[in-house]
Amino acid sequence: MIQRKVFNSIFFLLLAIFLFFNKDVLAKRAAIIVNYETNEVLFEVNADTLNYPASLAKIMTLYLTFEALEKGDLKWDQKLKVSKVAASRSPSKLYLEVGETITVEDAVMALVVKSANDVATVIAESLADSERDFAKKMTKKAREIGMKNTTYKNASGLPNRAQLTTARDTSILSRALIKNYPSYYELFKEKKFSWKDKKYKSHNKLMSSYDGADGIKTGYIYASGFQLAFSAVRNNTRLIGIYFGGDTAKHRDETLKFLMNKEFAELSEKKIQTNKQVSKENLEKNNQYKIIVGTFKYEKNAKKQIKIVRSFFPEVLKNKDSRIFSRKGQNRTWYETQFIFFDKQEASTLCSLMKKNNIDCFVK
C-alpha cells in the first residue's frame, strides 16, 4: 500500500512535468488512454478540450477511403488524377504534378507512412466534388461514429481555425477504424513506402521501439504541437493512447509511452488479482469438503494439533490450507482444527490414513 502511494505520487509529479511545464505553450495539452476491448477510459487529462487535429485528420480520410474500397466505390489499383489544387498543397507531400496519377494503393500508403498532404487532397477530390465537400462527409461520419466535438475542414489537417477535434474523439475514431476495418488497419504496421524510386520512412518512431505497437498516426502543425494516436497490444489486451500538444516528437513519444506503460502495468496487476480470486473461488466451489482433526478448549492446543498432523503428512498437506474454527458453547468457546478444500474422495482417503496413524478425524 505504501509503495502504491509512493508510485502514484511520483507518477503525478512526472505527469505534471510532462504535460504542463512548457516554455512556450501554444497547443493545448491533452491525453487519453482507452481499453479497446471494453472501451473503458483508463486515464484522461483534458480529453474534451478542443485542439487542432493536424495530420490526425488523415485517419478520417483513410477511414472513408477504406469504406469506399469496401463498397466498391474505389478499387485498389484504380488511378486517381492529380488536380492543380492537390499539387499546390504544402509539405509534407509527394510533390505530385498536375495531371499525373497515383493508384489508390500508393495513395493509402503515402498517407499512412509519409502523411502526404497533396495525396490527401487527391483522395478527397476522388470521393467528393471538392475537398470542401469531402470535409463535410468527414464531419458527418464523425457524428455517426460518436465523435461529438469534431469538425473537419480539409482532408489533410493543414491549418484551419475551424478544424477542431478532441483527444476523446480521436480515440473513438482510432477504435472505430481498428474495429471496422481490421484488414486495412494492418497497413499501419508498415514503416516504409516507395514512390518514384524514393523511399520514405514512417514518422511514428514508437512503431519500432515500443513493445506491442501496431499503429496508428502522428500529427503536427505549429498551432497543435506534436500529436500521436497510438495502439499497442500486450497480453492479448489492446490499449489506444492519444496525446496532443507535445513540445517535440520525442517529448510526445516519451509522454505517451509513460502513460501506456503505467496502464498496461495496472491492467496486468488487476488480471493477476482477478485470476487469483477466480482460482480461489473455483477451489472453494469444487472442493467443498474438510477434515476435522480435533476440538480443543484452548486455541494454542488447536494450533499445536495442526503442526502435529502436518508433520505426519508433510507432502500430502503441503499445498492444503488449514484453519482454526471457533465455536461458541454455552459457557465457553471451543476451537475446531480443520484442513480444508478437499473433494469427497480425497478427504475420505486421507481421513482413513490419519486414523491408521491414531489421529482422530471425520469428514464434513
What do you see in this structure?
44% of the residues lie in helices and 23% in strands. The chain is an alpha+beta fold. The strands form four sheets. A five-stranded antiparallel sheet has the order 2-1-9-8-7, sandwiched between helices. Strands 11-12-10-13 form a four-stranded antiparallel sheet. The protein has a two-stranded antiparallel sheet with strand order 3-4. It has two domains: 24-275, DD-peptidase/beta-lactamase superfamily (Beta-lactamase), CATH 3.40.710.10; 287-363, Alpha-Beta Plaits (2-Layer Sandwich).
Please give a handful of descriptors for the protein shown.
364 residues, alpha+beta, Alpha-Beta Plaits, 2 domains, 5-stranded antiparallel beta sheet
List the helices and strands and how they pair.
Blueprint: H1 2-20, E1 30-35, E2 41-45, H2 57-71, E3 79-81, H3 84-87, E4 101-103, H4 104-114, H5 117-127, H6 131-144, H7 167-180, H8 182-185, E5 192-195, E6 198-201, H9 206-209, E7 213-221, E8 225-234, E9 237-246, H10 249-286, E10 289-296, H11 299-312, E11 321-328, E12 333-342, H12 344-356, E13 362-363
